[in-house]
Design a protein that fits this description.
Layout: E1 2-7, E2 10-14, H1 24-34, E3 39-43, H2 52-67, E4 72-75, H3 79-87, E5 95-97, H4 100-110
Parallel strand pairs: 2-3, 3-4, 4-5
Antiparallel strand pairs: 1-2
Length: 111
């Protein structure tokens, strides 16, 4: 769990197992509004279930980042978690990577 600046233009967010109890995504969205020069990688390695509240927060964060010209990459999703994005058809909305290192590489390739 936690938010850390991974490199100057990238913020890495390690999500906790119980997402509905945490405000990391709201904090990152606020950070994105204030600090408009960073991409965000969200690591789902500890997450087992993604609920509707989390999906709404991710969409809000994506919009905040997109409005400022930045990217959001989700990584470390289990097949079941990724399936939740597929069922809701959000798999075409978000960018995904296998792990945080692949996410960083993906962001560097886009830049």
């Amino acid at each position: 769990m936690g938010i850390q600046s991974w490199s100057k233009p990238v913020v890495l967010v390690d999500l906790p197992q119980r997402l509905e109890d945490d405000d990391e995504l709201q904090a990152v969205a606020a950070m994105g509004r204030e600090k408009a020069d960073c991409d965000v990688v969200i690591d789902f390695s500890n997450v087992h279930v993604v609920g509707s509240t989390t999906l709404a927060r991710l969409l809000e964060l994506r919009q905040v980042l997109q409005d400022s010209g930045n990217k959001l990459v989700l990584c470390g999703l289990s097949p079941a978690t990724k399936g939740g994005f597929t069922v809701t058809r959000l798999d075409s909305v978000f960018a995904f990577a296998e792990d945080r290192f692949a996410a960083l590489a993906q962001l560097q390739m886009v830049a």
